[in-house]
Amino acid sequence: MGVGVSAPFLSVIVTTHHRPQLLSRALEALRRQSFQEFEIILCADEGSEETRRVASEQLRDTDTFVSRPGTRGPAASRNLGVTRARGQYILFLDDDDSFEPAYFAALAARLQADPGPGVLYANLTVVLESRGPEGIVFREARRQANRNLDLRWLWVSNFLSNNSIAVATHLARRVTVDERLRSHEDWDYLLALLAITDFEHLDVFGPAVHVSANPAEHRNERAKRDRQIGLDFIAIYRKWPAPDERIRAARLEQLRTLGVSGDPAAI
Fold first, then answer.
1. How many other β-carbons are positioned within 10 Å of the β-carbon of residue 124?
2. Contact residues for 253 (Cβ-Cβ < 8 A; gap 6+)
3. I want to staple 124 with a disulfide (CB 3.0 to 4.6 A). Which of 33, 196, 200, 207 is the partner?
4. What pTM was estimated for this model as a whole?
5. H-type helices in 138-227, by residue range?
6. Regarding the domain delimited by 10-213, which CATH topology (the fold level of the hierarchy) does it fall under?
7. Residue 183 backbone dihedrals phi, psi, to 5 degrees
């Protein structure tokens, strides 16, 4: 795909892996945005014909498609996308999620009026659905308002979806998504941002997280079954030391619920 002459206001980094049906829905949601000053950077860690077909059908001349076979996971794709971004702010979108049509307009209005915040996070909708060869079947949707979140507890566990944030590009390039983690690399990325900038809430609904009714399709559930998730929590805790004793105690309790133990001095 080509590159436009003028830089867009937003860059949307979409990551995908062998899910053309879901990818098509995600890209359609982007094309329906009422605010169109954005570019799509689609990063696939495979080179399948189906993914290339969807990219050819859905992407515009101003968008970018990067195919990097090797199955290195979404972290490497996001890092690559950040290096290609030309917009002032970066958004992340997994191939199974979407944005509501008016979201970019609300986001741009807020950022153009006050470009101060390094990270904005919005409310989101959690959509439960069934997926199969016959298509996607809607089950239920639940609104999740993020206006009263206490972000100090991000040092214990994650409660922000990566597609609910908008990051100033110059800050996104100061940190990287950890490609060594088997799970929760999006949470580690949030902590890296939290260490260098302020987060502010945008009280609008726009991001939608689509959750499969089949737990076997959940990446973090697979990591939990093979006990990798506890090791990833410990790695993240060691990288980002607890800011106070209250957080340290909560971390130890979190590890206990995951069935692992940690050295209080190390977390």
1. 23
2. none
3. 207
4. 0.92
5. 169-172, 185-194, 219-225
6. Spore Coat Polysaccharide Biosynthesis Protein SpsA; Chain A (3.90.550)
7. -155, 165
Sign of CA dihedral 258, 260, 263, 267: negative
Structure tokens belonging to residue 13: 């980094």
Q: How confident is the model at residue 265 (pLDDT cuts 50, 70, 90)?
A: confident
Rounded Cα–Cα distance for residues 257 and 165 (Å): 28
Distance CA 216, CA 202 (A): 33
Task: Pull the structure tokens for residue 183.
Answer: 């799970």
- Going from N- to C-terminal start, the domains of the chain cover 10-213, 227-267
- Phi (first) and psi of residue 120, to 5 degrees: -110, 140
Per-residue exposure over 168-193, b if at least 16 CB sit within 10 Å of its own CB, e if not: bbebbeebbbbeebbbbbbbbbbbbb
Q: Which residue, among 72, 84, 154, has the nearest Cα to 119 in the 3D structure?
A: 154
